[in-house]
Structures are given as structure tokens and as C-alpha cells.
Amino acid sequence: MVSLPGFSFRRWGAWSPAMFDAQGWQAWVREETSLNASEEMAPAKAIPPLLRRRASLPGRAALEVLSTPMLAYADQPIVFCSRHGEVGRSLAIQQALAEVGQVSPQEFSMSVHNATPGLFLIARQSRARVTAVASENRLALSGMFEALSWLADGAPSVILVFCDAPLPALFQPFTDNEPACFAFALEMMAGNDYRLVHGDPLPPGTQREKGTTSLSLLRFVLDETRNALSLTESADWQLQRLAPEADCA
Amino acid sequence: MCVLIDEIKTLIIETLNLEDVTVADIDSDAPLFADGLGLDSIDALELGVALHKRYGLTMSPDLDETRQHFASVRRVADYVAANRSC
After folding, report:
1. At what angle do helices B73-83 and B2-15 cross, to 10 degrees?
2. What CATH number did the domain enclosing B31 receive?
3. A45 touches B: beta carbon within 8 Å
4. Which of A45, A157, B4, B15 has its CA 20 to 30 A from that of A143?
5. How much is the mean pLDDT over chain A?
6. Range of the domain at B36
7. Contact residues, A window 100-139, toward B, CB-based 8 Å cutoff
């Protein structure tokens, strides 16, 4: 069994169309409501309009959660995680190249995976460090590995941000799709609330997660009744919630 | 010329996704870049592509000359009126 240093999540923020506050997300955790697949753009009003206009649908959602007062962003390193990233732009660029032979410089400049955190840091005039991660169904695990690396490197805390949106129709038949546009951010620091474990048997009653796991991570963190989350289809990696230590008498 | 100026303002707003900006908000004689409308070098490239698609214009590789043509909406309109092929 491999066990990595423990950690905690402190502040968090999340956005999806028609999900306005923490109560809404708690209702989603209890499965009383589901995410809305509309193409509504996140407001991201804290980002100057000249920068905000460059963000895509999932990018705007990420800007919204990074700039929410709930997160109180203070120039921590950012681990930006997105399964599909700017695939909508990449497809539009390729179609434009095939059809008219000319691509949009603006679309091209924003098609890289780290474009969204770049916009956020330009808006804040921050030189904070960013890691951008893309992974299929191990995204939550890969993001937490990266964040643990920053913590091991001495960062007091790290912002882990996840965002994605439904795929362009052309790609939808080929893979699991995201249910809606969403973004969420978690402030992660050394602590004793969670740990990543490899090779432990899953506790009885723990469901194996299929497909994308970033929303599964948010659901798990917000649902304090659960004590383990499988992070891979083979369930070899899991995130465990640790029982609070008893106070010494 | 007024019609062309408004057409170019609309092209700028649509091409560059200028949220909450209307044709009336753009001063025809104000600088497009930096201090004026606040556009940047990527916008200049984007606008070049849009002008090529809409009016068949090809920008000169001479930077100073191109800078003159992009100084304001009125300058862009003058350049389009004199050089358009469609």
C-alpha cells in the first residue's frame, strides 16, 4: 500500500448554469437537482471585459470560480485541470482551416490548455505558478498529485481548479460526455482530513466511479457522510476521508 | 462613408467579442489600440483576417504603413474604401 501525505480542503467555489450558491450545490449532492446543460456563460464580472471576452464557455466558468470571493485567491500556485479543455476552439480552428484556409488568431492564441489560468493571472497582474493538467478518467487523481507536489515543494496552499463543458456534437458519439458546463475550485493544504491511498481494498459500500471523476470529487468533498472515493476504474487509487482525531483528555 | 464607418464598427464589435460595446460607444477618430479602445496585437491580427474575409483586403507587410491604416475606425474606413475588392 502506498500512502501519500495527508491534506485538507479549506475554501471552495463552484459554478454551473442555474447553480447560484452553496445551497444549490448541496441539493445537487443530495441528488435533489441535476446540472443544467444550457450554454449560459458564467458572469465572471471580476475579470475586466477586454480579458473576459477571450474565455470559452468552460473558461468563463473557471474564471468565475477563481475570482469568487468565497475562494479569496491570494496568489497561490494553481493546478488547472480540464479533461477536454479548449476542444471546442480546436475543432472550430480545424474546420476553418479546411473550409476557408484561414484561422482566427484570437481563437488560436486561446486554444492552448493553460490559456484560461493565464487570462486570470493577467487580470490579477499576478506571477503565480500554474500547472495545466489534461487526463481522461484520472483527472481528479492527476490534479491532486500535482497539488501535493506543490505542497511538498513548500507552497502553503494550492488552488485546484476543474472545468469542462459538453463536447462539440461531432465528438459526442466517441466518448463519455460531460453533463453540463461546470467549474469548481478547492483550496488544498497540508492537513489530516484526506489522504490518497493506493492498493487498499475499498471500504464496503463504496461505489466504483466510471468515466470522468472531477465532478465525483466535488460531490465527495461536499458529502461528509462518505468516507472513500474510488479515483480510477480499477479502484486501485482512492481518496479517503479521515476520521477526526479524538481530543486528548 | 458614414455607412462604411458603422459597418466597420459592427465588424470590430462582432469579430473581437466586445461585450457591452455598441457602435455609438466607439469614437471614429479615437485610437483603436492601447489607450483608445484598448485592443491589443492579437486583435490587430484578428481584424486583419476579418477585413480580408469581408472586403478582400490584403495588409501590407510594411508595419508602419499598416499601423497608419489601423490608427482609428475612420482610417480603416478610408483604407477599405480605397482598396476593397469585394
Report:
1. 110
2. 1.10.1200.10
3. no
4. A45
5. 91
6. 2-83
7. 100, 102-106, 109
Contact A109/B49, CB-based, under 8 Å? no
Which chain B residues touch A106 with a CB distance below 8 Å? 16, 42-43, 45-46
Which pLDDT value is given to residue A1? 66
Distances in Å between the alpha carbon of A46 and those of A42, A60, A130, B73?
11, 11, 20, 29
The span from the first CA to the last CA of chain B, in angstroms, equals: 16
Is A200 within a domain? yes
Q: Among A141-150, A197-206, B5-14, B63-72, which stretch is predicted with the lowest mean pLDDT? A: A197-206
Of A49, A100, A104, the CB nearest to B46: A104
Beta-bridged to residue A186, according to DSSP, are A12, A160
Measure the CA–CA gap between A91 and A149, rounded to whole angstroms.
33
Question: Quick check: is A247 in a domain?
Answer: no
Identify which of A50, A104, A109 has the shortest CB distance to residue B38.
A50
Classify residue A98: in a domain, yes or no: yes
Q: Which domain holds residue A184?
A: 2-241
Structure letter (DSSP) for residue B33: B
Residue A249's pLDDT is what? 47
CATH of the domain at A210: 3.40.47.10
What tens digit of pLDDT does each residue of A107-160 get? 999 999 999 999 999 999 999 999 999 988 789 999 999 999 999 999 999 999
Decide which of A174 and A79 is more confident: A79
| Number of domains observed in the structure of chain B | 1
Q: A54: which chain B residues are within 8 Å (Cβ-Cβ)?
A: 17
